C-alpha cells in the first residue's frame, strides 16, 4: 500500500518553530548585551533597556493591522519580510555609537515582531490545526523557550570571544540563514496549498472543547465587544500577562533577598526556563485532551505551588530550586494558555481579528506592570508581596476564565439550536 502523505500542517509547524526560535535569538539582544554596551557607550541601564518598551509599544500599535494582513495576504511573504526586518535591526545594533540608534532598531524589531510572533503564531496555528491546536502551539513555544536558553549561553560566549558588536553580527546573520529561507519557501496558508486544515475532515466526538465546533462557530469582533464573555476572557489573559512577569524576578530575589551569588541566581533562573520548556509541550496536550479549564487549573497548581515555594524559600533556601522548576512548569500560561482561552471563548471563525485586538492590552499591561513588581522589594524589603500577587493573578484567571468558557458554551448551544431550526444567525 502507498504510504499516507504527511499533512502540510506539520511543515507549517516547523516554520512556526523557526519563527519562535528566531524571536529568542533577537530578544537576547537585551540580555547579556546590557553590561558591555552600557560600559562602552557610557549610558544608563534604564536608557538601554528602554528598547524593550519601544518594541512593546510598536508591536501593540500594529497588532490589528497584523491580524488582518496575516489572514488575507501571502503569509510566507509577510513573515519573511518581518523576520528580515528584525534581523536587520539586530545587525545594525552592532554598528551604533549612540543609544538613539538602538531605539531605531527597537522600532524595527517591534514592527517585525508584530507580524511574526505573539499574534502571528496563534493565528497560524488556528489556521492550520483544527485538531491538536494546543499541542501545536505548545511545541512551537517550547522550542522558543529552549532556544532562549541556548541563545543566552551562546551570546555570552560570543561576547567574551569576539566583543558585543561582532556578537550581534554573528547572531543576526546566523539566525537569518537558519530561519528565513525555510520560512520563505514553506510557510503558506491552506488556500495557497490547496488543502484543508489538519483535522478539519475528521469526525469529532469530544465535548464543547472540540476544534470542529470552533471552526463552525465564532463571534465577529462587533459581536464579541457586546458580550461579557469576551471581557472575561480578556481579563483572564491580562491576569496571565501580569502573573507571568513575577518569575522574571527570580535571579534578583535569589541574589538580593537571599544573599546568594550571581551564579546561583543564574541557576535558579535556568530552572525556571527548563520548566517552561517542559510546560509548553505538556500544557498544549492537556488542553487538547482534557479541555481549556484543565489547562487553566494546570497553571494554578504549578505556578501557585511554585510561588508558594518561593515564599517558603525566604526562610529556608532549600525550597528555592524546586520552587523555580514548579514555576517554570506553569510558565507558558501567557504564550500557550491565553490564546487557547481566547480562541475557545470567542470561537475560531473570526479569532484572528479578535486576538489581534486583545494582544494590544495584553502587551501593554505586560510591559507596564513588570517594572512595578519590583516596587514590592523597594517598599517592603521583600518579594513576598510579589509572589502573593502572582498566586492571586493565576487564581483569578482560573475563576474568570471558567466563567467565560461556561458562557461560551451557552452561546454555542444557542447557535446550534438556531442552525437546526433555520433561524438567522
Structural description of this entry:
This protein starts with 8 loop residues before the first helix and ends with a helix. It has 20 helices and no strands. It has two domains: about 10-195, MFS general substrate transporter like domains (Growth Hormone, Chain: A, Up-down Bundle); about 210-420, Up-down Bundle (Growth Hormone, Chain: A), CATH 1.20.1250. With about 425 residues, it is mostly helical.
Helix content: over 70%
In CATH, the architecture of the largest domain is Up-down Bundle
**Approximately how much beta-strand content do the residues carry?**
under 5%
Q: What is the radius of gyration? A: 22 Å
Report the end-to-end length measured between terminal Cα atoms: 45 Å
Count every helix, treating DSSP H or I runs of 4 or more residues as helices: 20
Output the CATH topology of the largest domain: Growth Hormone, Chain: A
Rounded mean pLDDT is 87
Structural class: mainly alpha
Largest sheet: none
How are the secondary structure elements laid out?
Blueprint lengths: L8 H19 L6 H8 L3 H28 L2 H19 L5 H16 L5 H9 L4 H30 L1 H23 L3 H4 L17 H6 L4 H4 L3 H16 L6 H8 L4 H29 L1 H22 L6 H9 L4 H14 L4 H23 L1 H6 L3 H38 L4
Helix pairs in contact: 1-6, 1-7, 1-8, 3-5, 3-6, 3-18, 4-5, 4-8, 6-7, 7-8, 7-14, 7-17, 12-17, 12-18, 12-20, 13-14, 14-15, 14-16, 14-17, 15-16, 15-17, 15-20, 17-20
Membrane topology: Multi-pass membrane protein
Protein name: MFS transporter
GO molecular function, one term: transmembrane transporter activity
